[in-house]
Here is the input.
Amino acid sequence: MLIPKLKNTISNASLGVLVLVWVGQGGRNASVMHGVSLSFFALWLILLMRGELARPARHLLLPSVAGLLVCSGLSAIGTPCFFNTAQSLTKLWVVIAFGVIAVSCWEANHRKAFRLMMIGGSFFQSFLIIVSHWRHRPAPLFLPGNPQYVSLWLCVAALVAAGSALDRLEGKRNALFGFVSVSIASAVFLLPTRSAVVALLVGIGLITARRWGRKGFLSFCAALLMILAALPQAAWTSFLKTEDPLAWKRIDIWETAVRGLAEKSIFGWGPGQFETLYREHAVAQGDSWAHYEMTTSFAHNEYLQVAAEHGVLALVFLLWGLALYFIKHRPRTGSSLGQQAAVLSAAIFSFFNFPFTLPACGFLAAGLLSAPELLMEENDRRREGGGMALRAGRVVLMAALLALIAWNGLSVWGGKMWNPSTLIKEADGMLHAKGNGPSPSDAEDAEEKLQTAIHCCGSDPEAWHALAHLNLDHKSPPDLAAAKMAIRQALRWHPTHAPWLLEWSRLLEREGNLEGAFRAAQQAARLEPNFSGAALQVGRLLRRRGDARKAEAWLGHLLRKSLKRLRAGEGLSPYAATLLRSDPDDIRREISIAQMDQARYGDALETLAEIRKRADPDDLVLEAKAHYLLGHMQESRNRLGKALLADPGNDRLRRQYESLFKKP
Here is the structure.
């Protein structure tokens, strides 16, 4: 058993490490987060080695947490992205580690320090928000995360402070907590975040119902309805963000999550694999010029996130734990009631957002749920520290913690070696750093990095696409089979990415599979109706399949559309800019070839004359061919001569010149 001094040291250390989470932007700073994880896992390991299992084993939420961990472990088996899976499981375990430390070691003074830390930081943040709103400036965010996360912290802290204000304390202290609670709640309304406002109102409703009974709750509801009825329409429009086209996109994301869950419902897609699900089941975003590239790693609903990644069984365990907490936990003091209202507000908030992907929010919840009132009665657990089950659980937990400590220790210095995005960037730098192209050794090193990225995350389409690019453009001779396999894998994980479908079409065309190339180009054009590159490929393949008349009509329509369309400007994503960017001269070249296929050589010359940049050797060759077929030998000779002067090292042009104009 822990001696009191060591127990106090561990408690103080856990609170000190928690401060580092703020320094690390709530857990987003990977280097800081690895140190935080190592610290919490080491402290948990000390507890296990000392036999400290009694209090955690009597915790009300133990069955829910254990079931969630088992389901997460099973869902991690066979996932295509080892790195993301390991990172996601580490986040889950480190939050649980913090909760175990709080349950095992914290005393009343440590819980009080945790609450004051949360309330004090939130009060300072609310002060910044109120002052910035008064001065009509954007508020600096002191708390970790974006405004959504900050609003959750404010909401939780306001309710915890309100609960403290209800305790029978000295009058001045009671009034101070009330003032702090109102100030923080005001900042929630000023942000404003819809889900946080709803969560705050629900939390206040719980406090009034538990503190003043049915009459108090009905009075709160009546007052709320009166306030809502008095709000002007402009306030409702601003609050609901009805003019923002992206304000309700999360409904489409929820539909996508349900689609993916229907495919893999028992154990889900694996921890950290929601983006893989989204790539395969995304709902079309039809109200944007370039709409299929919108992707996300989060379901914007914590419950759907858990179900999609860990499976329906994990969601059942999670909901079971929440139900037990609210059914069996009856607060005795105002501070405990404020904590329960804060937990309820976080649960409501999680229906609309994904807060617990940020470790700071997980630590917040673990600290709130570790209150002594959640321990079961002594009669419910006759054997606290012994028994085969507890001994076996201790061994399993120690093995898991040692594995997590090893993983985080390696990640401190080796994270870049396994991070797919880092490896892809390094490989890209090797391939494109030199103006004359990479050396054979650079290409080999780049391929090794891409293979490592694929090994760590087989579902990363960027890695597969980069490998296809390497095999196609940076190998001599190009490895068409390897490039074809890599592009097929990239499209497997991102089937709605129109630029890659266009590359697939061009690769099939290069192999001579015109029918397959035509179908791929048509699919890209259907997915992105404004993708001029895909539409141009459709017209080119129509001509190559022998339908020159239809190709000319298609390309003519595309040319008119291209001339009318506004050029891609600022504010568009790189993906949208790529799709909307078009060169009318490329379309005119294809139209001229289609006209020559119909023996309309004069029309072809007129089309070529409209090209703005006519110094291109290929354009001169096309003009030479049209003049030759019209019988204008001297004009044809002049065009080919100019093409040779523009590109004297082109053997193809020289052979064509000699074959057309052999001297008798």
